[in-house]
Design brief:
This protein has eight helices and no strands. It is flat. It starts with a helix and ends in a 7-residue tail after the last helix.
Length: 203
């Protein structure tokens, strides 16, 4: 009886909107955990100092924040989309932008490490996507040569100039990676920390 009732509710069009929000919230949580937990675990144990308890707390805190934010963003975004569709009727790209704009402001608007990383990740994808759309619609000419090597050269030239001369301008995680690669490699006291170990606290 209970199984039949739940099945009828799941198939009932009257509950589709509510169940869509529930599923969106669930997917946001799961995707946040799937993405953040392994990434945070690797980066924390490789580059962060502290006790095991402190590292585990940091990993769980970052994972919770990432998962919670994606869950709330998905729910708010879809709610606002449905609300606009109910008020206006015909869908329009501006409705998508406004729904995501509001959700992004309230969910990812706090300036912290997790939000900064996600927003910067989106920035690179958005700029790439806009460039492709501009070429597709004839706003920019189709390059007659492979631009990717020049893009890579420009990015690495800029980031290493910033690292060498304006280190504080870069994100702390990027500073740590750059320091490990380009500054720690200039310091050693013997064969052990030249080849096998980077330092007493960080391999």
């Amino acid at each position: 009886m209970g199984h039949q009732l739940s099945g009828s509710v799941l198939r009932d069009p009257r509950y589709h909107l509510l169940l869509t929000l529930v599923k969106g919230f669930r997917n946001g949580l799961m995707y946040g955990v799937k993405i953040r937990l392994p990434h945070s675990s690797v980066m924390t144990f490789l580059f962060h100092e502290g006790t095991l308890r402190e590292k585990l707390e940091f990993i769980l805190r970052a994972t919770f924040q990432h998962a919670r934010n994606l869950a709330f963003l998905t729910t708010i975004y879809k709610t606002l989309l449905y609300l606009q569709a109910w008020l206006v009727g015909k869908p329009h790209p501006l409705q998508t932008f406004l729904a995501a704009f509001v959700a992004g402001y309230f969910v990812f608007g706090e300036n912290n490490k997790v939000n900064m990383q996600i927003n910067l990740y989106l920035l690179s994808r958005v700029l790439t996507g806009l460039a492709r759309v501009a070429v597709k619609r004839g706003l920019l000419p189709q390059p007659s040569f492979d631009v990717f090597p020049w893009f890579a050269a420009l990015m690495w030239g800029l980031v290493l100039c910033l690292f060498e001369y304006e280190t504080a301008s870069l994100q702390p995680s990027l500073q740590s990676s750059m320091t490990y690669l380009y500054r720690d490699s200039t310091v050693w006291s013997g064969v052990w920390d030249l080849l096998a170990w980077n330092s007493d606290t960080l391999w």
